[in-house]
């Protein structure tokens, strides 16, 4: 009986224990919070590549020094051997080579062949006509036409024809040599051999001689000024150039280049500056340096523009504040013929022209312009340009010119 009671008690205890475990499990499930949604996975960067030495450390935010502040060991410190340091070589500006111009004496004679090539139409044409057996009126009209075509001018042509008529009539029989001599004499008389054709570059005082060069744009005025500097240097004179042509681009550079080639200093100002001021400074510098000659290249003037011509007169007046102007050279393009005479008249009204420079007398130029322009202005041709070469500007020599005109 006791065994039965013990078995019942054990069974009751077991049932109670199992019931308690079930109740406890249900309470724990009710107390758990609702499940949270899955969070976004965190992406971790791949490990950096392995580094060497100090760089293997984690980078730290530290102030950085520029490379220039970091002292590097010198070659002597690194090797322990003194190293010789050479001074840096500084390139010095190379001065332009000074040229020695060709002597002016006899320069036109040396250029005679070049001059003759362009003048044979006049000289040979006249000799051919005068060599005819019968010189009738038609022949004399042809001679007149030949002279007019060569830009001799109406009045000089009529004068020359009349003198030739008289001398041929007296001469009678005419050999080629006699005709050449006759024509040479008459042309020389027409051109003139007694005029003073030297370019006046001496002032007679302690100041330099002052030469002003004028002319229309395109006549070769600036080039002529540079070539004239060469002529003067070749004769042993020291020259200062005044670049008063401020209205034409690069005119001052062009003149300075000419000056540097012969060792002449160029006084210049800003582009578009006052030409009179630059001319004044050029003469002032010439006096200070003790130069022999000052050449002033003026701005090219359109002879149809009254205001510009008046400005040219201003340049002349300003220059004369230092002393008298010794020479005023008018540059004319020989190929323009009678049009050059129109320019000459207007320039002569503004400034007192004392000499004429005929450029481009080779090529298509006609030799008669020498006679015509002298008659028009009453001043001599002093210089002639016979080409593009640096030494192709020559003092005008009537005998050499006429010999080239009529040929041998």
Helix content: 40-55%
Going across the biggest sheet, name each strand in turn: 3-2-4-1-5-6-7-8
Radius of gyration: 50 Å
Structural class: alpha/beta
The sequence of SSEs as H and E is HHHHHHHEHEHEHEHEHEHEEH
Report on the biggest sheet. 8 strands, mixed
Mean pLDDT across residues: 78
Task: Report the β-strand fraction as a percent range.
Answer: 5-15%
| Overall 3D form | elongated
Q: What's the tally of helices?
A: 14
Low confidence ranges = 52-56
How many strand elements?
A: 8
Organism: Streptomyces sanyensis
Subcellular location: Cell membrane; Cytoplasm
Subunit structure: Part of the signal recognition particle protein translocation system, which is composed of SRP and FtsY.
Region (Disordered): 29-85
